Amino acid sequence: MKKDLSGIWAPICTPFTHDDVDMEKLERNMEIYSKTPLRGYFALGSNGEACMLDEEEKINVLGKVIKKKGKDKLVMAGCSYESARGSIAFAKIAHEEGADIASVITPHYFKKVMSDEALIKFYETVADKSPLPVMLYNAPGFAGGVQLSVKAVVKLSEHPNIIGMKDSAPTGPNIFLAHVDRKNFSILAGSANFFLTSLVMGAVGGVLSLANLLPHACHRLHQMFQQNELKNAKRLQQAILRVNQRVSGKFGVAGVKAGMDYTGFYGAEPRLPLLPLSLQERKNVQLAIDKFLQEYPEFSFTARH
Amino acid sequence: MKKDLSGIWAPICTPFTHDDVDMEKLERNMEIYSKTPLRGYFALGSNGEACMLDEEEKINVLGKVIKKKGKDKLVMAGCSYESARGSIAFAKIAHEEGADIASVITPHYFKKVMSDEALIKFYETVADKSPLPVMLYNAPGFAGGVQLSVKAVVKLSEHPNIIGMKDSAPTGPNIFLAHVDRKNFSILAGSANFFLTSLVMGAVGGVLSLANLLPHACHRLHQMFQQNELKNAKRLQQAILRVNQRVSGKFGVAGVKAGMDYTGFYGAEPRLPLLPLSLQERKNVQLAIDKFLQEYPEFSFTARH
Amino acid sequence: MKKDLSGIWAPICTPFTHDDVDMEKLERNMEIYSKTPLRGYFALGSNGEACMLDEEEKINVLGKVIKKKGKDKLVMAGCSYESARGSIAFAKIAHEEGADIASVITPHYFKKVMSDEALIKFYETVADKSPLPVMLYNAPGFAGGVQLSVKAVVKLSEHPNIIGMKDSAPTGPNIFLAHVDRKNFSILAGSANFFLTSLVMGAVGGVLSLANLLPHACHRLHQMFQQNELKNAKRLQQAILRVNQRVSGKFGVAGVKAGMDYTGFYGAEPRLPLLPLSLQERKNVQLAIDKFLQEYPEFSFTARH
Amino acid sequence: MKKDLSGIWAPICTPFTHDDVDMEKLERNMEIYSKTPLRGYFALGSNGEACMLDEEEKINVLGKVIKKKGKDKLVMAGCSYESARGSIAFAKIAHEEGADIASVITPHYFKKVMSDEALIKFYETVADKSPLPVMLYNAPGFAGGVQLSVKAVVKLSEHPNIIGMKDSAPTGPNIFLAHVDRKNFSILAGSANFFLTSLVMGAVGGVLSLANLLPHACHRLHQMFQQNELKNAKRLQQAILRVNQRVSGKFGVAGVKAGMDYTGFYGAEPRLPLLPLSLQERKNVQLAIDKFLQEYPEFSFTARH
Predict the structure, then answer these.
(1) Residue D177 near chain B (CB below 8 Å)
(2) Residue B156: which of B118, B120, B113 has the closest Cα?
(3) CA–CA separation, D249 vs D235, rounded Å?
């Protein structure tokens, strides 16, 4: 049964206290998100620092997100491993935990030999054996420059258990959207920087780190597009781009966490080698959010509690 | 107590049969290596496909390498995790298993924020808490382009529990060798392509994937350098570079494994997304080795059994 | 007096016969273009192979484009030199020839030291001394990866003699559009791949190599956007992206020229080291155009003559 | 008649006064160089800022270098143009001026299509028509990342009018040296960073920007290698690498010019967009040279006058 993936997805952050996963803080964040119009969550992704969690931590985090997800929300579980075997094994666990979708980044450690042929075989094997439908995750910024080609995505989009792609490449998904039959393959924008333009070209939604701190703003932008308010949408998109660049763009996950701390969530510290923001950097993040909320005060009420 | 790291290290490959680690084949490879003049082994490195092994497989492989290492040989264990926490945890396991050194690649998933400050803090934290002495592993080809700066290496070389660096960047370690006090910090070349020139500039040895298939040739090159036979060394280095490029350079780990199959070891198949070589590719690897052994027949007798 | 730059610009190709500029073929192309709804021309740009023309050839080509431009059309002249001195000198010549605007690519030979400071000083000096208003030209694909930062563009947009930017970076101009006051600074999309999305975000037009072969299709897309026919625009944009990728995207200038030959212009051969397309490549270009014209037959009548 | 290219080549800088070429300062520099053991000069190269000189300036500079070259010294003239036509035309001029060799960098503006096929055709056409023997110039740092492949160099080395290659890629020429028949093809190291190791592997000399300020030190390193003083050579190479990094490595041409000012030559200012060094940067260059001369005082006497 095909799921409707349209809408905003938050790539859930993992709060740490003294380098341990803080399940209580995660639970409180989920309680707030569950009352927002978010479509769903991406657990164990890049913003979740999944590459730095051990297996037990990953299962605990995923379990908590699923338990607290709220009504009618979907959970996409990061099942990214360098081997097909690893991705399949975790997709089975995620399925047992109750996740809806498995997201798998392009393998990249052996970048030199990650040809179309290798990536297609990898994803087809994972999709054949995964009990969950699979989302491709194209993110050269995290994957050492490896990215999916149009040819590979067109081929993979025909697999019955591959349902879509999250595209975080800085060029955005426009090229893929022009080549893929989007009836059976949903494309999600992977950055707030190009969310509106991706919608214009056919994306059904976005997995946006900014939704971790400003979920209502992201949702409203989607709504404006759906209601054909293009001028308003452009203005909001530009404000969103500006704040996004000064938070996630400049500081990555640690910036998103500092922003969450400021808008009423529990961001907490990242895990080493990610460094927490300095006081000055933290102030810069807050200033960027203040500036955004001065222009759009309507998005400040819910997140701050 | 400082260990002498001089000599040739083989970055041990992990043979798979039907996608499972084949411990028997690994054991037979180790039996041959144990009778060669190799200085030691790098277990759980890139050539060992460690990023695709689960924790249990890693411990089994490491245990086997240590058990079969042969007299007076050292074992460096890959303890590469994206988090300091993960690297420390595995260094403790490797220490219990009997490894001598912990090798840790630069973390790289969050490439954008891997500043000198982040990398220095990461390695200092790992070195503070690791029961094993730590080797830095600089390999931008695997680490998505992340590399250690001269400044970071100079700083880290002062840490009492950081004993050296393996450098696999295509430029070779010459710049580091000119800036670091090499009394307390040993640099190993990470590619046969620049082994001789690294020795000339002060490296003490090399971790060479070619040593997996042609250990004697690599050892002889080191010996020629030590005995000041520079003209012979140059000729052998050039032949080694040519075969290395056509095996590991062109095909990566799968090429090294095909080469091992040909010279009398058990390379076996790589794990997906690495693809095994096609028949034609396999022939090309064999031709490159044949060409090398025609020029240097003295290196053929031991490996073929 | 501020000029309205809105619309489609063709980056005029330079036809060669036996390695000499073929002024007659250039003239015939201009005669056709002059009857199209193009806003203007970019002479001596990348598609004009300006980097391979000598000074005399450049002046002849520019003179011809200006003489044959047609009523109310603007001419932007490529004044790209590695030195400020060179750009200024040519801007004076272009002014005397009757050009309207000077376009200057980021200098890039000394990439390592092309800091914000250097690029800002360069452009400010050129703009101070150029008799023509200056357009920044951001094209990392031609400029060895050098690109203008948001900070540099914001600063340069305040200069009274800098009137805009053509952005050919694969990410498109969205980030610049969100940061620059666009009342006094016009941004043009530099690729048909992201033309519609650039318009949505505030670009006033595009300099599109595809306009060299399919000027009416490009113009119609702009019109659809202006008339708020967003669904039709999306469909046409996707078709344009597909043909653009198979012509300019795959083959560069030589592909554009082969496409021009097919749609009724004189593309002719490129200058070495650019290679003319093989017969098979030429057929692939023609097939891509046929496919586009099957979907949009209304754009075929004018160009074919 | 084959020329012996062995030795140190200085890539002559072009001094500017108020943005004009200062022929008098150039002449004085040449008078000093002519009394050194330099093998020859590379005029109109990257360090000569040739890409920023107009045709008349280029001819004047080249003429001056040739006139003042000193007995038995060779002059290599930069004949780098994006088109084969341009390179051939200037090689004819350089020949008339009395140059010995034409050096041509890889064309790179159209990077995307600079295949082996295009580069081979380009160089073969230039070599066919150039009255001067041609040196390939591989310098991805200036050429936007374009570099010659082993396959292309092997093919081009067979052309009777291509006599060698200058390699400035950070990996150094070792891979080329292992694949090319060096009887008819001389390879020169293009950076002092890897001069000694290139000699060890078969290079015949180097075109070293450091020779502009410290010609005797560079020459002595070559001599040590020739006299098989490998330990002394290693120590000097490391000191040379350190000073080279802090001068040319950090600041490029402007750093080399500041260094020349300090060691008794006329560096003078670079041309915009190159920026002159700040006072602090200039001091850092001087400190680096002081440190080198403290370790090697024997190289200070000649340059300072």
Answers:
(1) yes
(2) B120
(3) 19
Q: Could you tell me the CA-to-CA distances from A141 to A169, B143, B198, D72 in Å, in that order?
A: 7, 12, 32, 54
- Helices and strands of chain A, counted as H and E runs: 11, 10
User: How far apart are the C-alpha atoms of D225 and A107, rounded to whole Å?
Assistant: 46
Of A52, A115, A275, the CB nearest to B118: A275
With the C-alpha atoms ordered A226, A231, A234, A237, is the resulting torsion angle positive or negative? negative
**Pair C251, D110: CB distance under 8 Å:** no
DSSP notation for D119-164: HHHHHHHHHHH-SS-EEEEE-TTTTTT----HHHHHHHTTSTTEEE
Distances (CA, A) of D54 to A2, B93, D58: 65, 66, 6
Helical residues (DSSP H) of chain C, grouped into ranges: 23-33, 55-67, 84-97, 116-129, 150-156, 174-179, 195-201, 215-226, 230-244, 250-263, 279-295
CB C247 within 8 A of CB C213: yes
The Cα of A201 is separated from the nearest Cα of chain C by a number of Å equal to 6
Question: φ, ψ for residue B276 (rounded to 5)?
Answer: -65, 155
Q: Is the ipTM of this complex over 0.90?
A: yes
Residue B12 identity: I
CA distance to B209, B286, B289, per residue, from B260 (Å): 10, 10, 10
Q: Does D238 touch chain B (CB under 8 A)?
A: yes
Say how many C-beta atoms besides its own lie within 10 A of residue C54's C-beta. 15
Q: For D99, how many CA atoms within 13 A lie in the half-sphere containing its CB?
A: 32
Taking the C-alpha atoms of residue C62 and residue C49, their distance in angstroms, rounded to an integer, is: 12
3-state secondary structure of C3: coil
Within A52-194, residue ranges assigned H as helices are 55-67, 84-97, 116-129, 150-156, 174-179
Strand partners, C75: C41
Q: Show the beta-strand stretches assigned E in chain B.
A: 7-11, 16-17, 20-21, 40-43, 74-78, 101-105, 134-138, 162-167, 186-189, 205-207
- The 3-state DSSP composition of chain B as helix, strand, coil percent (nearest 5) reads 50, 15, 35
Model confidence over D72-127: pLDDT tens digits? 999 999 999 999 999 999 999 999 999 999 999 999 999 999 999 999 999 999 99
pLDDT above 70 for A303: no
Give D174's contacts in chain B (Cβ within 8 Å): 193-194, 197, 241
**Domain regions of chain A by residue span:** 7-214
The encoded tokens of residue A250 equal 């400049």
Measured in degrees and rounded to the nearest 5, phi and psi for residue D297 equal -65, -20
Instruction: Give the predicted TM-score (pTM) of the model.
Output: 0.97
Q: What is the pLDDT of residue D183?
A: 86
Active site residues of C: 166
Four-way CATH pick for A7-214: 3.20.20.70, 3.30.70.1230, 3.30.230.10, 3.20.10.10: 3.20.20.70
Amino acid letter, C102: A
In DSSP terms, C101 is beta-bridged to C76
Query: How far is the C-alpha of B133 from the C-alpha of B3, rounded, in Å?
Result: 10
> How far A247 CA sits from the closest chain C CA (Å)?
15
User: Which residue's entry shows tokens 């900014």?
Assistant: A210
Q: What are phi and psi of A187, to 5 degrees?
A: -110, 130
Q: Is the distance from CB of B203 to CB of B173 less than 8 angstroms?
A: yes
- Asked if D273 has any chain C CB less than 8 Å from its own CB, the reply is yes
Instruction: Name the minimum distance, in Å, from the CA of B194 to any CA of chain D.
Output: 8
The CATH code for residues D7-229 is 3.20.20.70
Q: Which CATH class is domain C7-227?
A: alpha beta
Q: Are D137 and D161 in contact (CB under 8 A)?
A: no
What pLDDT is recorded for position C300?
82
